[in-house]
Specification:
By secondary structure, this protein is of the alpha/beta class. The chain folds into 2 domains: 143 residues, D-Maltodextrin-Binding Protein, domain 2 (3-Layer(aba) Sandwich), CATH 3.40.190; 99 residues, D-Maltodextrin-Binding Protein, domain 2, CATH 3.40.190.10. Helix content is 44%, strand content 24%. Strand 1, helix 2 and strand 2 form a beta-alpha-beta unit.
Amino acid sequence: MKKFAALILLLAALLGGIALFQRRASPPAGMATLTVYCAAGLKKPVEAIAQAYQKEAGVEVRLQFGGSGTLLSQFRVVRQGDLFLSADEGAIADARQVDLIREVLPLAKQHPVIAVRAGNPKNIHTLTDLLRGDVKLALANPEAASISRVSQRVLGATWTQLAAHAAVMKPTVTEVAGDLALGTVDAAILWDAIVAQFPGTAAVEVPELSSHHENASAAVLACSRQPAAALRFARYLCAPEKGGAVFQSLGFTPAGGDAWVP
């Protein structure tokens, strides 16, 4: 039943995203526009960077958020847009395999952690603790969200146990983090940078997860009608004094890029 419910959530997110894409309003007259599919876990830094870029470059950046897997399915269907911002390398590899992307620039590094409520009231220190009867665990849907797809690959059989025990499964990493911050669940598996963005949560590092790092990346879509403009924004996103500084301020480890040249 849990797997069926997860598939229904993924389908609903896909259809909703396509509908939202189709009813986007027209940009102000004379303003160039970029359409960007952005992993939900990158929302806070990318929103701030997009606003700064619009002021500096006069380019409107339209952002479509969701799990990396969900977004990949969306632009594979609509065949419109300019950039894909993925939270993990696996989604980039999947997109490249079906010839959906061109240039790829790394943005920031992150790794999975156990996330708990501030103060760790349930005294959670290991993955085994997540399986206790008194721990209400939330996970993101691995068919939609990078964090769970990566954790599933890294943990193997342990992930299967965690998924069977999970009381809550949501489409995106930020929805799971929101539940944890509100105190409706006791623990989750999140990106370390996500924990830093949600007050009321804390990270518990465990060796099974903390040794595995993933690059969040920006990829120019093969269907883009303005690939040069898309690549320019991607370079702004990863420039150390522009997007890199924003990523760092929000708990990410910048991947490092070339200095911005206006």
